[in-house]
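Protein modeling request. Please complete all fields; requests missing the sequence field cannot be processed.
Requester role: graduate student
Desired output: 3D structure, token encoding
Chains: 1
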Amino acid sequence: LQWVNKYSLAIFLFHFPILFFGIAVLEYDPTNLFHQAGLLGGTVILCLIFGRVCFALKPWFDRFQAFVVGACDRRFPRAPDVVASPPLVITPSHSDFLALVKLIATLCVVLGHFSFSQFTDLTIPGFPGAAPRFAVPTFFMISGYFLMMSIDRSRHGPVAMLARRGLSLYYVVVPALVVTLILDGIGFRVDASVYEFSDYYIAEQRVRPYPEGETVGLMLSSLLYLNETWIFNLTGTLEHLGGMRAYSNDPFWFMCYLIPFSAMLITLRLVSPRYRFVAFAGTCLFIGIPILLLAPLFFSGALAYVVHKKW
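Delivered output (311 residues):
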């Protein structure tokens, strides 16, 4: 189960572009069971390999994170009127239970995406073309739970805590974005039709590689977790794509909800009470209504932590 905690994020962020790359460059038959088993098994194996690479790179990202967090703490220290709270100490059995839930949710996401008509003609029970609806809420709730625990354990200020939260995921996020760019670039040149699908979006919104001039904007927006903020809706940017998207890596939208939710919770917990609600309102205004609609899922996990800690 500890293996699940270690590799679940890598599987989540790598599997979708690998699946599309596979059917783009291979003579893939979605009605052939051997092809289906090979694609699904090969995708999982590649995800684990990429996960190993991510962990090999992690010390470099950790040093960068420590530098940025330290600079933020020196420039924006924690306010003296923010009361620290002793953290909850969870038992190994509780940790194993949450890891098991993550395992089930991760498998459901992968199988849910694999059930798309591009990959299989099989009707997988409970998987009508998208991951079961419990999986993403589960990830949000578990994330809210553990962020509350991290805030209790930390003595950072709000800016440093937010930087730590976002940068702590870079060891997987950066390789996943780079791999997506490479795989999509190759796959699109081999078979562009693979990247024109409407499983999630209306037909005229095509998830496909951007022109070269937009790649820098894509990377910056993704690294700052801004892809889902409503600035793209308000400005009409990339309407033909439905907004800024990380190429075929559709699951990356989750990260662009998770970090804004984290910013909201960190603001409520670590900003000085004198400025807390003004800062929170500003954060919500910047994030936008579409993201806020799913915020109760994340905050229900934070509430579960509070309840668990008290009782």
